[in-house]
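Follow-up to my post from last week.
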Amino acid sequence: MSTHADGQNAIPAPISGRLAVIGLGPGAAGLMAPDVRDELDRAQDLIGYTTYIQMAGPVRPDQRVLDSDNRCEMDRARLAFTLAAQGRHVVVVSSGDPGVFAMAAAVVEALDQSDDPAWQAVDLVILPGISAAHATAARIGAPLGHDFCVMSLSDNLKPWSIIAQRLEHAALGDFVIALYNPRSKARPSQLSQALDLLRRHRTPATPVVLGRDVGRPAEKVTVTTLGEIQPDQVDMRTLVIIGSSLTRQFPRRDGGAWVYTPRWYPNPSADSTPG
Amino acid sequence: MSTHADGQNAIPAPISGRLAVIGLGPGAAGLMAPDVRDELDRAQDLIGYTTYIQMAGPVRPDQRVLDSDNRCEMDRARLAFTLAAQGRHVVVVSSGDPGVFAMAAAVVEALDQSDDPAWQAVDLVILPGISAAHATAARIGAPLGHDFCVMSLSDNLKPWSIIAQRLEHAALGDFVIALYNPRSKARPSQLSQALDLLRRHRTPATPVVLGRDVGRPAEKVTVTTLGEIQPDQVDMRTLVIIGSSLTRQFPRRDGGAWVYTPRWYPNPSADSTPG
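User reply:
Got it. Predicted complex:
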């Protein structure tokens, strides 16, 4: 992407800044993309939660951290454009992948809603990261090894009726289901409702993976089942993976379990033999 | 994970090797996790397609590349365990994330099917990577910014009836849909069938993103619509993202388009105001 004025604009574009929306991955430095590390090093202004930013390493004295307690993603996105339009090098920090229930959608939406030419001239890049779903899956085997869907259970920005309808179709389609934002103090009962809905479609033995703080020092990955899971095993920092009808678990030699969803589907026809 | 013999086994476990199933990410070195780079450097045996392995950088003379033309994933998984059980440090290479339509599920399934204690003693780790879906999404904005599903259109290992049923539920649930393996010479018509199915549920203006070789030198990202897409724009190396009813596109200042799916859902109630 170029930030130069194009041929239709006789007036040279003002020198504008750069806005990078980056994903740290799960947290461990070893799972963060080098391009993301470079953006962090080049940043003048860092926007995001201090907790996430510090996961990525120390902040230099010449770097500003704008860690508003502001929970409004659109306000943070607009702040980022305002600073970048002034020529600053701004990095918006999300954990995981910035495109998955994180800041990338808000930043692009803010641009869509603006007709400020200075915002349009900002050099906007989005750098992906390893998402919590894939990091959790890797720790426990390959539960996302076949068709899956990724949903947020938060009804802050969408009505519960939409969430329930989606869960129903995800269940009917026999997708493996990865749930973000599964439970919060403000919404203690929605995970229970979701599990009740899924239990109408899948057996109690269906493997369920709970990944909390995966890739961080307090990492805990638990394997349970749809029949046994208790909602209080889950909090807002837990990624929940519900298996499909084919997802299997088996014991690890050193304790714990491996969980995977095979790449094949049972089929009477000969050309679908596993392997 | 430990490879030591546990208390139930009085005979010390044999010294066994390590089997790392790794994801290179989309291809560019800047998007590969440092932990993955380390595994590649430590590898004695590399299993995977030469094309992928060479994307990751040069192979040292002391490293073996086992690039069978073998298309059978289970055979490659068993070869990896056989070598690791002999004490080798084996790395199985996938592009993207190894847990998404790649080798992790086959490797864990091979372990599940084996009762060889030497295989059980192998130090098995799976290291995630940035998947093609997230890499493509980042290049074009945030099309996966809300609930989405990830499907393979290949019917090598599952019947088309299952695929069609899943597509139907993904459409009814208004998920954004990321399609892997959308089309091959052996299956030229299935993408057309999938698009016909989706057109019954979504408007012709629905944004569609085609990401080919994203993160590689020949990268090409195209934005089209469900009404305009032609199946011959797509091949096996293309990742296709079909928007939900809310996915939007708008022009970039320098040409091309941004595509995103907002984090909010229209709702008459006051507590769901966007932002």
